[in-house]
Amino acid sequence: xxxxxxxxxxxxxxxxxxxxxxxxxxxxxxxxxxxxxxxxxxxxxxxxxxxxxxxxxxxxxxxxxxxxxxxxxxxxxxxxxxxxxxxxxxxxxxxxxxxxxxxxxxxxxxxxxxxxxxxxxxxxxxxxxxxxxxxxxxxxxxxxxxxxxxxxxxxxxxxxxxxxxxxxxxxxxxxxxxxxxxxxxxxxxxxxxxxxxxxxxxxxxxxxxxxxxxxxxxxxxxxxxxxxxxxxxxxxxxxxxxxxxxxxxxxxxxxxxxxxxxxxxxxxxxxxxxxxxxxxxxxxxxxxxxxxxxxxxxxxxxxxxxxxxxxxxxxxxxxxxxxxxxxxxxxxxxxxxxxxxxxxxxxxxxxxxxxxxxxxxxxxxxxxxxxxxxxxxxxxxxxxxxxxxxxxxxxxxxxxxxxxxxxxxxxxxxxxxxxxxxxxxxxxxxxxxxxxxxxxxxxxxxxxxxxxxxxxxxxxxxxxxxxxxxxxxxxxxxxxxxxxxxxxxxxxxxxxxxxxxxxxxxxxxxxxxxxxxxxxxxxxxxxxxxxxxxxxxxxxxxxxxxxxxxxxxxxxxxxxxxxxxxxxxxxxxxxxxxxxxxxxxxxxxxxxxxxxxxxxxxxxxxxxxxxxxxxxxxxxxxxxxxxxxxxxxxxxxxxxxxxxxxxxxxxxxxxxxxxxxxxxxxxxxxxxxxxxxxxx
Length: 680
Ligand code: FEO
Ligand code: CA
Ligand code: CA
Ligand code: CA
Prior knowledge:
The structure is a single chain. This protein is mainly beta. It has a single domain (7-89, 132-142, 149-163, 174-278, 285-310, 321-476, 502-629, 640-672), classed as Neuraminidase, CATH 2.120.10. Helices cover 10% and strands 30% of the residues. It has ten helices and 35 strands. The strands form eight sheets. The chain has a nine-stranded antiparallel β-sheet with strand order 15-16-18-19-20-27-26-23-22, with no helix packed on it. A six-stranded mixed β-sheet has the order 10-9-14-13-12-11, with no helix packed on it. β31 and β32 form a beta hairpin. The protein is globular. The protein starts with 20 loop residues before the first helix and ends in an 8-residue tail after the last strand. Residues 252-253, 349, 455, 557, 572, 612 line the site of one calcium ion.
């Protein structure tokens, strides 16, 4: 593999050695108190021609360097001609755990029957196999003794979307005759998979059969709870109660709760709905429909042609039943998923639960749309650490807030509460249910800060400092008109840059972070800082170069702190490493030190894919990541751009002995050959 060596700089990392996280925290707390009480003298370090003010010197209190350090040798960027496979540092091994269409191990005759990707996927086969386009995920360890197992767990993964042509086994999907069967096969590829994983002879494998194996799809009945349950805007002819929705869709990133449940987030749900041009002409889009992006053609899935549930003129309230955070109990395969409406309706990316020192619970969430918002939900009740059952409905009552980032480095959480701040009937909000269903419009009224596409949110395991990726935004600042997804935006109609989103036409994205006032998850104010502006150090335009200390990256998306405080960053850019991405290379996963800001490339990925989703065993010695949509934008041949994973891996869960038929999204397990913690 060839690689371009960036003119990297070598700022000495301040290693935390083998100090325990408690020792590190003692230092952190000491510095934080010091910073609050003194006027810091700024020191500016020069990095590759950039001036980067260190976190401590700006007055913002960042989390410490990770306990155990970051010790691997970074891998080179995957530049053209790209390697169509996973590359990890020397001393590490990556294996495929399970790929689209591999059996999840449901009890019975289907336990070990995999789909043959040379054929059309059917609903029946998809219901016993791993779904399409895996995204966010979490590993729930089994209890063992007084602790948790590192060798046995339930891996729960989202399946964000399908490429319809891959499902229907056709390269001309746009012109085939749609049938209900074709729609149902695609619906079954969405949602969530639960598989049991076990470590046997040093390798993690899917346990087949397992009583826990489960598929939740776009047709699985889900209960609706919270203030919007039973609301007039949630009722349909098929569900006059407005309390039971068929399925969950576009499950992008995720979250999990300290009471052992999984949170799956519904992102671009609007794309599944459509209608005819004639029906839309007879009844144009409402303000609500327009604000959430409904359009006659949707994203081209064509489901509405064969299933009236997805025709938003035949069933105008059906779209209102998507765009929620859905809670799943992985330990009970019969438990109904629950749509928690108190957390608001938007294009949810992740849902990061943070427990305060007093057991208060907050959930941080982003709305991934250009110039949309960041939200926080604070539960009305505290976490019950003794009785799991008492937390079951914690997400049904509380206060939803939206963020305003002030130019002076402070921020405010604005409450989305009916009756306050103009969220009243005369402005179109009849009750709290309507505030939540129209959360975007409610937030518009409050003067929230428009962000550069909020993606994942994570928090430091000890300090509770929050980090969030802002992946990019080609509709901010500047004067150039552009047309994306059929919508043309004039330069003059764009929001201007602001302190929290400082670059016009933000091509490479950035990562923002904040501390709640007093370290209290309930606080209504916070202090924020930009962790990194991503970019290409070799770009000619200064605003494209970023201010990265370490390896270049762009379009940050997946984001996760491990137990030791290493910040893992996954990217979702054009996956072919051409054009703006020629120097940065294909999508990758990076490991960052929150204190020094040093960023090091840990993994590179197959062609035309996205790296997303991350989970770990409790001991940090096995990392699970998802590779999504390898080879996407295939033209003329499914395998033209990628033949991964079957070309790189040949095991029982890939299609052993069969020729490669299609590239497939897959989950990958990464371990360190010496048995150590991944990243050390
Ligand atoms: Fe599905 Fe915002 O990524
Ligand atoms: Ca994402
Ligand atoms: Ca993305
Ligand atoms: Ca994706």
